Amino acid sequence: MNPARLNLNELHQLKWLLGTILSLIALWTLFYLDVSNQLFLAAAFLVVSAVLVFPRLPGRIPELIWKGVTPILIVLIVGDFFLHGGDFLPPLVRMITYLLVVRCLAYRRRREDLQLILLCLFMAVISGVLTMSLIFAFQIVIFTPVAMVLLFMVNLLESSKDRTLTLEDWDYFQWGHFIDHIRRVMDIKLIGFAGALFTLVVVVSSLIFVVMPRFRFDQAIPFLQLKSSSLTGFSETIELGGVTDIIEDDRVAMRLDAPSKELMPANPYFRMLVMDYYSNGQFSMSRSVRNNPNITRTFESNRINQSLYGRVSDTRGYEQPELSAGVWTFYLEGGISKYLPALGPFKTMRFQKRQEIDSNQTFLTHNLDSATKSVFSYQVWTMGPTPFLSASREDRARLPGAEPIVADRDSEVWATGGLEYPMTLLALPLAESDAAYLRRVVDEIGGAGVLGAEDFAERIIHYLQDRHAYSMASKVEDRGRDKIVAWMQDGVSGHCEYFAGAFTLIARAAGYPTRVVVGFNGGSWNTVEDYFVVRNRNAHAWCEIFDGTDTWIRMDPTPGGQRLAETGMAGGSRVLSEIQGWEAWVDSLRILWYRSIVNFDDESQRDLAAQFRDYGQVFMTEFKATGERWVSAVKTWVTQPLTLQRGLIYVGILLLIVVLVWLYRQRLIIQGRLMETGWGRRLMGNRPDPIRQKAGRLLVRYEAALEKINGRPELWEDTEAFHRVHLDLQSLRFGNLSNRTEALDIFKAARLMIRRAYRGG
Amino acid sequence: MTLSNKTVPAPKIKETLSRIKTNVGRFIRGKDEVIDKVVVCLAANGHLLIEDLPGVGKTTLAYCLARSLDCSFSRIQFTSDLLPSDIIGVSIYDDQVKEFIFKKGPIFANIVLADEINRTTPKTQSSLLEVMDRSKVSVDGQTYSVQAPFMVIATQNPVDYEGTFPLPESQMDRFLMRLSMGYPAYQYEMEILKANHINYDSIQADPVVTRQEMMEIHHFVPQVFIEETVLDYILQIIHATRTESEFRSGISTRGTLTLRLAAQAHALFNGRNFVTPDDVSEMVLPVLTHRLSLRRQTSDTLEERLAVEGVLTKILGSIKVPV
């Protein structure tokens, strides 16, 4: 028995401290929610931490201040909501934070403790459904037991009326002593019980999670729908340097579950958005593309179906990766982009829920209404990671033979309603001097109009890479020139956007329709959990050139970019880069979270149910088959003629059974005898004698049975027998065990008597 | 006298003790529980203090008990002018042999009834200390043993304070048990009325147990087996009295040993050669109550006794009984 106990005051202190710890955890979850001022949250966190470290603080706040708190809070909260009328969530979060801090700054009554738990729970739920991050899983795992213990304490202290702590109660409080005392009060049973309870809660919630109907909280509750702006490099208009800004960010942008490692291209290009229009260092999707319902279809669905085979063009002799028939699951981190990366055309793209989708049939890009705040997952069936895409009917009809359109940036040509797609693919809004320079470059490269698109493209790439080195930072002063033309003329180093931009300008000047593609290139394979990781630094820009008839060919002019000849599986000089070790391990925890929690939809539910059914069936069949095998084996063995050897085996088995039964029946006596010897005690430790234990348990039942006899006159004549057995039992429990050998008989007699007392027979 | 050290003849002892019980019960009607405890106290070779109002049968009980044994009995009426020598005896000069001869006092008997023990002075009370503890009397440098078995049965009135000297704690500690009688129930009082006994002198109680039998019982009581969890139970009760804030001080180690002895005697009285937790809990009130005093003031001994019994009962309820 553990003699240490907490007194009432210490229980109250513990309850108060637990409440403060719970508040800290709740505030911590808010840090990952990008709705509130981090400085504001940090201040709240600091205040609550101070109260935790110095629990006397609340007692020192003058009574007068509390009188003013309520009106100030009302003004603050109402004002906040009023000023952020449209935006509901941030003032809401701030309101909860105010209330939580106020609750932490005063010693709480029972009612206020319950309020505090509710506030914390609300905070945790909001940040949980909005971030769906792995760290939230960790936070909720700490949050739950703390909240459970706090609720338990509130219940436990229910009987102590509505007592609150006062400053005097903390007179002798010291953190070190308190923790030491708590440690001493803890006993293994308590911890075991709490652990079991917690496990039960986890198991039950997992079960509920698995079986409940799927829906996304953040989409089901209107005010939780929080829009996020995507990174500038992945929006409709990209300034030079937009992509490069992303490149400096090493955070994970996307994870991808490939059907197998073999199907993953060594150097994958994830297309996200395609831009047809260029103007002075700024690429954009032209208005005619965005607003043309024939090109950009907007609809609401939980899937996008494409005719994959019509989208992948002839490979013109290059060895190409095979089309995968498997399922690719993408997990796009929150706030990356509304454009959904894909390796190429696909058959079906499926979402967890109905979404509003813009699907660009010409560029083969797809985007949501806006970038999601939390991880967005989608699945793609049968994808073609190919550099050859079929051109749309419009491209094929209008692009062949089209001439570049050159005009000054201010020209009427570029005004609204002026240039229509697909002519934007040949647009060069340049000053005459810049256009003349481009024409000179085209002449210098040579072969324009004569060579096929891919050959001329190779020449442009050579031209650019001969003159420019790769560098993240480039110093260009345009002095009125077009930004990219200035870069070309100065011959300085540059990054992917300059190379892609220059390639586009030269190709267009030579009459080859060209477009810029932005997305991710590369990534690494996590060997721990087998999936592909793409980081923000993999952001990239490259080009697609029209071959003059029916195909768009991917061209990556940046040094290190993939050449057409390398795209095949065998021919590729690159191998898939891998990440291993600690980093890979930690990141794979995250993918586990995404795969099994975030991405767990009703389809997965059905899969799981089917899996269970299959396992059950397989198990039952196996079980039956094994049973039948055993039975038939025994049958054959038994029906064989009896020989001396077999006879001996039979006798042996029989003897073994007899010995085992005897040992089982005598186990208490043997164990007790063992414990009387020195080495037996050492072996079994300081355990009570098994006979005494058993007699004690029987004695409790026997004494209850004895009381029954009083009300049963027909048993009275046996009273003496009842008392004799009682005495025997007592002597086994409390006597000197001289009658140890009779123990089994006494137990038997006692059980018989108990039965008689209850049944009367 | 050969006494076996091995087996305790529990059924035989039970039978012997129940003879005493029956014999006393013939005259003290309706007080079976008190008589049981008195017999247990006798078996444990302890001294007994009976405390109650005058006229409820204290002296009669003691007298009947003494008469049930085939032993010498003496009765001392304690008064304020009683001197120690009146109890233990005195050395007087014998003219014929020309030396001092010790003339034994009434304490030299097997059973001594000390009536109204609190009526005498502390000096006289304390003369009982040595003899009750060691069964020896020292006079003029000479030590005399009293005959075994030796038992003091004292009576006192807890309410009347006038002209009394309350027993000091050291004296109280010498008594194994303190009991009180209480009024008899209606039907039993009617029987007493009909029996026509005026006082105990008219009681014709014959001895039912020999001195030899009594010695045997005293020999066997300490041999009664006590299992470890029961010992633990005893110690937990004792420790609880030491940490209880209502008591001025807890039970001494002598008190602990006494409780054990009383439990052993109680087991034998019930015909068992081992102690159960029930034996212990039965003995807690009679053995421990008079050894404890309250921190707060009470108006008289009776009130204090009831309060101490209340706290002890609470302690008993809070300690887990071994099963």
Could you tell me how far the N terminus lies from the C terminus of chain A, measured between alpha carbons in angstroms? 42 Å
By CATH's scheme, which homologous superfamily of the largest domain in chain B applies?
A: P-loop containing nucleotide triphosphate hydrolases
Kindly identify the CATH topology of the largest domain in chain B: Rossmann fold
Overall number of strands of chain B: 9
- Regarding CATH, which class of the largest domain in chain B? Alpha Beta
Low-confidence stretches of chain A: 569-573
Distance between the termini of chain B: 39 Å
Summarize the SSE layout with pairings.
The complex is a heterodimer of chains A (761) and B (323).
Chain A: H1 8-31, H2 38-53, H3 57-60, H4 63-83, H5 89-104, H6 110-131, H7 134-156, H8 175-185, H9 188-211, H10 217-220, E1 237-239, H11 242-247, E2 252-257, E3 269-275, E4 277-279, E5 282-284, H12 287-290, E6 296-305, H13 308-311, E7 327-332, E8 346-360, E9 365-368, E10 376-383, E11 388-390, H14 393-398, E12 405-407, E13 427-429, H15 432-445, H16 453-467, H17 483-490, H18 496-509, E14 514-521, E15 524-526, E16 531-535, E17 539-546, E18 551-555, E19 578-579, H19 581-598, H20 602-639, H21 644-665, H22 667-676, H23 678-684, H24 690-710, H25 719-734, H26 743-759
Parallel strand pairs in A: 12-13, 15-19
Antiparallel strand pairs in A: 1-5, 2-7, 2-16, 3-14, 4-5, 6-8, 7-10, 8-9, 8-10, 11-18, 14-17, 15-16, 17-18
Helix pairs in contact in A: 1-2, 1-5, 1-6, 1-7, 2-5, 4-5, 5-6, 6-7, 15-18, 16-18, 17-18, 22-23, 24-25, 24-26, 25-26
Chain B: H1 10-27, H2 32-43, E1 47-51, H3 58-68, E2 73-77, H4 84-88, E3 89-94, E4 99-104, E5 111-115, H5 122-126, H6 128-134, E6 136-139, E7 142-145, E8 151-156, H7 169-172, E9 175-179, H8 186-195, H9 211-220, H10 228-243, H11 253-269, H12 277-288, H13 301-318
Parallel strand pairs in B: 1-8, 1-9, 2-5, 5-8
Antiparallel strand pairs in B: 3-4, 6-7
Helix pairs in contact in B: 1-2, 1-3, 2-11, 11-12, 12-13
